[in-house]
Specification:
By secondary structure, this protein is mainly alpha-helical. It has 22 helices and 2 strands. The protein has helices spanning 2-14, 16-51, 63-88, 93-105, 110-143, 161-182, 185-189, 191-195, 206-223, 225-228, 232-245, 247-264, 269-280, 282-302, 305-308, 317-355, 357-365, 370-399, 401-404, 407-410, 412-434, 437-445, and strands spanning 147-148, 151-152. The radius of gyration is 23 Å and the shape is globular.
């Protein structure tokens, strides 16, 4: 392990400016993940603290409902947050794999290779966790302005405590280290294949089975909720988490199918190259648009809100407050989900450009027009973007059918809300990915092609 400690700083410096940029992107992703996760957990703790207070005389006890809705919001936001945190450890994975594969071919053991990666990703996660705590502290006064249950939260209600911060400082680097080590299976098993840039084996249809089982589990639990009694709320939240998380398994497999179809129907060089990139590495494409897929699922799940809030509450002040809180909570969840998707897409797209630096530079030196490379970069995002946004929203509507049926279509506002958020989300994510355009120009301006 002494060799790992000695090599770690040299390994980081060997990547040059690209490695520093990728490290900055990873730390940013970890910081955003940590800050928003702590904010979401703080909101849950705030509702839990209010639920423990005595009920004022003459009021109905709806605190358990608020707590259940808070848990649902936590699931809908923490799953994409954890996904972003896991993806952060994989930023620049192609260039890292190439350097580690070279070390393996020179005699480094699998244990040393894993140690180097764990060291690198763990310190990125640690720095990101510290910055995320600062972000959480900055967001506390903002979150305290949100009105729920007829009043705003206090900062003390949203504070996760020093124990929560300590758990964060330990958990984030651990997640980063595990995610980074998991990404090294190809290097440990076949370093020569990585060095020769062989295409890894494709994903199997078992991913689709996992997704169907996850979604089916929630649908079954939803249909049987009436028979579960007091355990219904917990079972629904748990099944929702399982079904939602399986989107990460199905998403890359679906994008692989989209790549195959696009390749067969390609009629221009830009479409051909974009389809080839998508087919070669659908997991990388999912890292760019996966955040929008998860946000699209949230939009599909909340599209039923206008039908729920359409009831007349003029004679029920408490019911009016509940309806207002439902709208506030849904809007906050949707906005955070789509902003998170934009941040995730921008970071992943920038890292993807750096990962493909050698490929892009060689194409440029071979005479490929800059406009073509830019068009390929744009199409590699646009095609998966549209499929993922619509597909995830449809998956949410199917998944929640046992609970809400066709209620989303009974109110025109629900359909308008869904279309508006998907359109705005696609535009926001696409704009975020366009921020990598200057980075592509800088890569093309460098005529020196690195060996790694």
């Amino acid at each position: 392990m002494n060799a790992v400690v000695a090599l770690a700083p040299r390994f980081q410096r060997a990547g040059g400016r690209d490695a520093r940029v990728t490290t900055g992107l990873a730390i940013t992703a970890f910081a955003v993940t940590t800050g928003l996760t702590l904010s979401v957990v703080g909101g849950l703790l705030g509702f839990a603290a209010r639920a423990a207070l005595p009920v004022p005389p003459g009021q109905n006890d709806v605190r358990s409902l608020y707590l259940t809705l808070a848990w649902i919001a936590v699931v809908l936001l923490v799953v994409p947050l954890v996904t972003l945190g896991g993806a952060a450890a994989r930023l620049g994975v192609a260039r890292r794999d190439a350097r580690l594969a070279t070390l393996r071919l020179l005699g480094a053991t699998p244990r040393e290779v894993v140690g180097l990666t764990v060291t690198e990703t763990a310190w990125q996660g640690f720095v990101g966790a510290l910055l995320g705590i600062v972000l959480y502290a900055a967001l506390l006064p903002v979150c305290a302005l949100l009105p729920f249950q007829g009043t705003t939260f206090s900062v003390a209600e949203l504070w996760v405590g020093w124990q929560g911060l300590l758990i964060t400082v330990v958990a984030v680097p651990l997640l980063a280290a595990l995610s980074g080590a998991f990404s090294l299976r190809r290097v440990s098993v076949s370093p020569l294949g990585v060095a020769r840039r062989e295409t890894p084996k494709g994903m199997t249809w078992l991913r689709l089975v996992v997704g169907v089982v996850g979604i089916g589990t929630f649908m079954v639990v939803s249909a049987a909720a009436g028979a579960l009694g007091a355990a219904a709320a917990g079972a629904l939240v748990g099944a929702l988490a399982v079904g939602f998380a399986t989107l990460n398994a199905v998403g890359p497999w679906v994008l692989g199918l989209v790549g195959k179809v696009s390749l067969k129907r390609a009629t221009t060089p830009a479409r051909l190259l974009a389809a080839r990139r998508l087919l070669d590495d659908p997991k990388a494409a999912w890292r760019v648009v996966g955040g929008l897929g998860l946000a699209g699922f949230v939009a599909g799940a909340l599209a039923v809100l206008p039908a729920i809030t359409a009831v007349d509450t003029s004679a029920d002040p408490e019911g009016a407050v509940l309806m207002d809180d439902l709208v506030t909570g849904a809007m906050v969840t949707l906005v955070v989900a789509f902003l998170l998707a934009a941040v995730s897409a921008g970071i992943a797209q920038a890292a993807s450009v750096l990962d493909r630096r050698r490929e892009i530079a060689l194409q440029n030196l071979a005479g490929t027009p800059v406009e073509l490379l830019d068009a390929v970069r744009r199409r590699t995002v646009l095609v998966p973007l549209l499929f993922v946004a619509v597909g995830s929203a449809v998956a949410a509507l199917v998944m929640f059918f046992p609970l809400f049926g066709l209620a989303v279509f009974s109110s025109p506002q629900g359909v308008v809300l869904l279309v508006a958020f998907l359109t705005g989300g696609c535009a926001l994510v696409f704009a975020a990915t366009e921020t990598s355009r200057p980075l592509l120009r800088s890569v093309l301006a460098d005529t020196v092609v690195r060996a790694d």
